[in-house]
Backbone:
């Protein structure tokens, strides 16, 4: 990864190492670590090349690299000094002052009411603030290393090229095996459920290149074509480099452990149950007899049948009706919002008392989704939020 | 109003203050039976976020799809409470009439007394298959029969039932008239059925123009 740093110092000190890399890593895709990040850096100048004329582009690059390196050096120095000052101010040991301590100190010393987190004062390592740049892509004579240099995005097009190569390889294999009368192995079939192709921003980080939306969709299409092939499992290793595992939705939130009250019953309290402008906190006690109390009243706190039905929906769905007691405090909003808030609270609390399969069922029934939709505002020049006034040309 | 302030802060924290779900959210499946029958399909859904259950949904026998739609169509000016009351009265009226009928004629025990299935039967009977739409060809307007989608035909059936029951004396209430219309339609006669037959007859007579739909 050291190659990614845009610094001549590094290049000078690791001259021999880099030379080896240049020799061995002629095809950049064969490198194990971050294959598309960098290909080749500035070739250290052997005597033979030194006599050759250095191209203008190379000169400019070297100058820029030097400048950047100097700049980063001073930035690092300043950061270290600032960190020590901060540590002294906070009365901590400057040697063991971590980035988290810095953030806390800044938040304490410069309290900011600004909404956007990016606009608030911050102190970070210069490596984070100034992103890594590509190393030189051409040698002293100005000749680019990569054959696709003039496409502008050599790493991206190399990637597309590799995908097509893999596809062709599999096609050939298929034909060969077909002639022999073999069929693809059903058991080994590539299963990508639970996986997602790398999103655009991550791919950009991997390639150190900014790609357009249409280019990303080209990547997605060619990858999907490769994955759909019957013998795709033959190039599983290649495909898996661009797949990202998806989290199970119902396992994303941690299920709280029930606590014990003075009567020896288990209970869970869910705070901040929100729906529309209503807000509730719900306590579910197990074992119970199915008592429901809302703001001190029973279920007839809601005069409407529909709202009462909503309260019972999660209980009835998970077959816990009559097995738990429910207490809820609710304020704000109308009956529909209030009942929705309590329903969500009950469903979230019930997770601690039912098994994993039922939790997944409840999620599929939409009981565990926080309904964050809010009334959309009316716009001027329009009849409502979306509807326009009737307009006739003549 | 301390709570309102808290809420607004909280919605900001979520970072999503909007009136719709994002596109990749999937509709929920309320019924446990449906979930059990689609086990294998649901494995795919385990990684996809689900929309929240609507506030008129539940996994009970009292939650019929057509009943729900009918309530929505009765509603005017967002008065859902009133329309649900009217629907309940209608179903009660149907039940009463049917029970009375079955008591009066003791030998005739096969009378359907389930109000909701009668409603479904009525809607099914009123569903049109074709609709006339006027298409201009060579300066002349032609009435061209076009096939309807399922959703649209259900909508038209329910709308006709409602329209028929809204044309009434002031002294008659909507649930009363709607109950009559539903009972009539469920038994295959009445104004709505006539309207549907009239439409299909017109479509039949205009069948010569059907090719204008695509040429």
Residues:
């Amino acid at each position: 990864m050291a190659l990614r740093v845009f610094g001549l110092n590094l290049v000078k000190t690791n001259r021999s190492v880099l030379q080896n890399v240049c020799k061995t890593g002629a095809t950049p895709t064969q490198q194990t670590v971050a294959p598309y990040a960098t290909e080749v850096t500035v070739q250290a100048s052997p005597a033979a090349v030194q006599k050759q004329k250095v191209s203008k582009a190379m000169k400019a690059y070297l100058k820029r690299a030097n400048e950047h390196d100097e700049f980063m050096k001073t930035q690092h120095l300043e950061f270290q000094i600032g960190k020590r000052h901060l540590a002294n101010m906070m009365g901590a040991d400057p040697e063991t002052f971590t980035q988290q301590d810095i953030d806390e100190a800044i938040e304490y010393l410069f309290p900011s009411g600004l909404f956007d987190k990016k606009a608030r004062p911050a102190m970070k390592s210069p490596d984070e603030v100034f992103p890594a740049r590509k190393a030189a892509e051409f040698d002293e004579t100005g000749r680019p290393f990569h054959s696709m240099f003039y496409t502008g995005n050599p790493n991206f097009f190399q990637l597309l090229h590799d995908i097509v190569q893999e596809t062709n390889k599999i096609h050939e294999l298929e034909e060969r095996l077909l002639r022999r009368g073999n069929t693809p192995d059903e058991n080994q079939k590539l299963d990508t459920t639970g996986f997602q192709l790398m999103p655009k921003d991550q791919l950009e980080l991997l390639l150190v290149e900014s790609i357009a939306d249409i280019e990303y969709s080209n990547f997605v299409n060619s990858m999907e074509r490769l994955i759909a092939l019957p013998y795709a499992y033959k190039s599983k290793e290649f495909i898996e480099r661009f797949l990202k595992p998806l989290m199970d939705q119902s396992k994303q939130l941690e299920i709280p452990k029930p606590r014990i009250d003075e009567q020896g019953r288990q209970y869970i309290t869910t705070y901040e149950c929100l729906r529309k402008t209503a807000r509730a906190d719900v306590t579910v006690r197990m074992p119970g007899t199915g008592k429901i109390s809302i703001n001190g009243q029973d279920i007839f706190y809601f005069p409407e049948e529909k709202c009462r039905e909503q309260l019972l929906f999660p209980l009835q769905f998970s077959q816990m009706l009559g097995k738990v007691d429910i207490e809820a405090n609710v304020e704000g909003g109308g009956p529909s919002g209030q009942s929705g808030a309590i329903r969500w609270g009950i469903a979230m609390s019930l997770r601690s008392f039912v098994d994993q399969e039922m939790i997944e069922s409840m999620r599929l029934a939409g009981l565990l989704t926080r309904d964050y939709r809010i009334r959309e505002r009316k716009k001027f020049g329009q009849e409502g939020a979306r509807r326009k006034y009737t307009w006739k040309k003549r | 109003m301390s709570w309102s302030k808290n809420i607004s802060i909280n919605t900001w924290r979520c970072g999503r203050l909007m009136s719709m779900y994002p596109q990749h959210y999937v509709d929920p499946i309320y019924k446990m039976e449906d979930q059990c029958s689609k086990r294998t399909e649901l494995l795919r859904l385990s990684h996809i976020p689900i929309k929240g259950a609507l506030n008129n949904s539940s996994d009970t026998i009292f939650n019929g799809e057509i009943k729900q739609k009918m309530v929505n169509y009765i509603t005017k000016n967002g008065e859902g409470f009133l329309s649900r009351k009217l629907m309940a009265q209608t179903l009660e009226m149907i039940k009463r009439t049917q029970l009375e009928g079955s008591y009066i004629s003791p030998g005739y025990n096969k009378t359907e007394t389930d109000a909701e299935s009668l409603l479904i039967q009525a809607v099914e009977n009123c569903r049109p298959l074709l609709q006339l739409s006027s298409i201009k060809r060579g300066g002349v307007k032609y009435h061209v029969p076009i096939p309807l989608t399922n959703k649209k035909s259900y909508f038209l059936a329910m709308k006709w039932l409602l329209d028929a029951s809204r044309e009434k004396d002031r002294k008659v209430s909507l649930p009363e008239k709607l109950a009559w219309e539903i009972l009539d339609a469920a038994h295959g006669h009445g104004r709505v059925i006539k309207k549907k037959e009239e439409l299909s007859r017109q479509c039949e007579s205009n069948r010569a123009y059907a090719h204008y739909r695509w040429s």
Q: What stands out?
A: DSSP finds 13 helices and seven strands in chain A. Chain A has three domains: 2-129, 149-245, 259-364. The longest strand of chain A covers residues 266-275. The interface with chain B takes residues 115, 193-194, 246-250, 272, 274, 277, 279, 304-306, 309-310, 312-313, 316-317, 331-332, 336, 339-340, 344, 360-361, 363-367, 369-376, 385 of chain A (CB under 8 Å).
